[in-house]
Each structure stands twice: as structure tokens, then as C-alpha cells.
Amino acid sequence: MQRRSKMGFLMRNFLVLFCWIILAVNAEEYITYKDPNKPLNRRIKDLMKRMTLEEKIGQMIQIDRTAATPKVMNKYYLGSVLSGGGSVPKKEASAEDWIDMINGFQKGSLSTRLGIPMIYGIDAVHGNNNVYKATIFPHNVALGVIRDPQLVKRIGSATALEARATGIPYVFAPCLAVCRDPRWGRCFESYSEDPNIVRSMSEMVPGLQGDVPSNGRLGVPFVANKQKVAACAKHYVGDGGTVKGINENNTIIDRHGLLSIHMAGYYSSIIKGVSTVMVSYSSWNGLRMHENKEMVTGFLKGTLRFRGFVISDWAGIDKLTYPWHTNYTYSILEGVNSGIDMVSN
Fold first, then answer.
1. Which domains does the chain have, with CATH numbers?
2. Predicted structure pTM score
3. Would you write out the chain's pLDDT as a tens digit for each of its 345 residues?
4. Main-chain phi, psi angles of 70, to 5 degrees
5. Residues in domain Glycoside hydrolase family 3 N-terminal (predicted)?
């Protein structure tokens, strides 16, 4: 009888100890930033506290797919990968080829200490146009002529669906340039020389991302569901107003002109929850936009209260010195201090 009593006592203590261990393990495994039920700001603060300087730097970098491997993603904690200049997995790559490539990069990111997923971006300015057999839509200059924002929104929805079908959650569109000189070789990327038409065509943003809920917060990025993508308003700001239409050149205009003409599409895009903004190669009155703290941090993030992230144009940081890339330390300091959150290179 005593032996049974002793065995019962031991079993009860063993069960208590086992339950305590289970609770302790669960408590140890619980991580606030991974809990989708917690408020976003709380999750961000928890993640930021855990990150090393190297991890924070890595998350601010976007590299081309040709330089990316699962090992590279893991080693450098990189935040993003893109297809630069029409770069594809292989000739006539299928949707499955794209997904397999992107999943490989993602496995490298998810196997890091904190498991932060990377985001893959691609130019999709008139459909998912880098992908074989994707639906190709007219360029912006042709869409602007039809004066039909709702059709543009439907094109955005179709583009988003085809991008997600290839595993891509982020597109570098729409281009909100206001082309003021037909000599500019990229006028086809502009909806119109009329800022009001460009503003109306920002309906591409909710087409790509979905409509912001009625209780949504102004300036806060919004992507509705897995059939939508994060959009990118570009190129901030004044890329269509350069002297003599010279590409990546200087836009000479007073502040009122810049804000009333070239800023038109950005006002409405931010209201519609655009997720990211890409900075222009061009300059405003002699100062390159990639180092213009007044316009990036002061106006975009301060006055307009944009709460998404600001990304450089492809190798835009490099072009802050001439010859390009001759003083990269200076370029990084200038670009990041101006308010650029992600460097695309």
C-alpha cells in the first residue's frame, strides 16, 4: 500500500514537472513579432529590439536576382530581391520557374536567426511584362489618352493577379511622371502632361493593392489580400520635367510648380494607401532627389505623412558622385540620411 502511495506521489510530481516544462518551452518559443494577433506597432518594436546592426543593414538592401542565392540571402539578411532590367530565371520561364526561384531565395531568408521574409520586386508597368506569356497592356501614355480611371484600375487588378501567380508580391508601378517635354525619351511612361489626368490615373494603386477600408489610416500602406501586390509610386519627384527632356537631368522649377504639377499623382496615391515610393534619378534645381532630405523626409514623410518605405531607383545611390560609385560611403550617408529606407543595387 505504501509502495502504491509512493508511486502515485512520484507520478503526480512527474506530471506537474512535465506540465511545467511544457509551459516553460511554450513561453520560451512565443515571440511577439511573429504573432499576427498582436498590434503591428508592438510587433515592429519587438522585432527591432532583437535585430543586430548587421541585420538592420541587410534589411535595407535590395539586390538583383543574378547576385542572389539562398546562401547569400541567409548570410547577409537581405530584405529584398528584384529582377533588374528584364532579368528572368531563364528564357521563356514559366510561372513555376519563377515560383521555384523566388521560393529558393525565400528559404534562405526564412532560415536566418529571426526568419524575416524577403520581398521580391519586379517592373510591371504595363502588365507583368517581364514574364513570358503574361498579359501585356498599353503603356501609360496610351492609357492616359482614354481618360478612364476605372479601366486603369481593372488593369492594375489583372496585373496584380498575374504577378502573384508567379510568386511576386511587389511591383514597381505606377509611374506618375508628368511629361512636360516630348523630347524626354521616357514620355511613354507618363499618363499625360496634364497633372490632373496623372492624378486620376493613380487608380492603378487600388487596382494593384485593393481599396483602402473606410476606416483606414491616411498614408499607411494597404494590401488587401493574396491576390494583390504592394505598389510603388515612381519616380519621386519631377522626372518628367527635366531641362530639354534630358533623361535623369535637372528639373528647374519653383516649389509651387513642383508641388502643383509633378506632385499631383503622389497626393492621391498616398491617400489610396500606396506601399512604397521610388526616388527619381533626376535633380530639382541642382540637387539630386536621392540626397534631397527636404523633399524625402521633410515633405513626403513629414508633410504628407507617408508611412510606407522609400526605395532608391536602381543604383540611384551610386549616381550621387561622378564618376559614379567613386565615393560609396558618401553616397550611402547622403541617401540614407535623406530618408531612403531601402537601397536598390
1. 27-122 (no CATH), 133-340 (3.20.20.300)
2. 0.91
3. 555 555 554 445 544 444 544 554 454 568 999 999 999 899 999 999 999 999 999 999 999 999 999 999 999 999 999 998 889 999 999 999 999 999 999 999 999 999 999 999 999 999 999 999 999 999 999 999 999 999 999 999 999 999 999 999 999 999 999 999 999 999 999 999 999 999 999 999 999 999 999 888 888 999 999 999 999 999 999 999 999 999 999 999 999 999 999 999 999 999 999 999 999 999 999 999 999 999 999 999 999 999 999 999 999 999 999 999 899 999 999 999 999 999 999
4. -55, -35
5. 52-342
Quickly tell me which residue has 488587401 as its cell: 224
Can you tell me the distance from the alpha carbon of 177 to that of 150, in angstroms, rounded to the nearest whole number? Answer: 19
CB neighbours of 190 closer than 8 A, spacing ≥ 6? 140, 141, 144, 175, 177, 178, 179, 198, 240
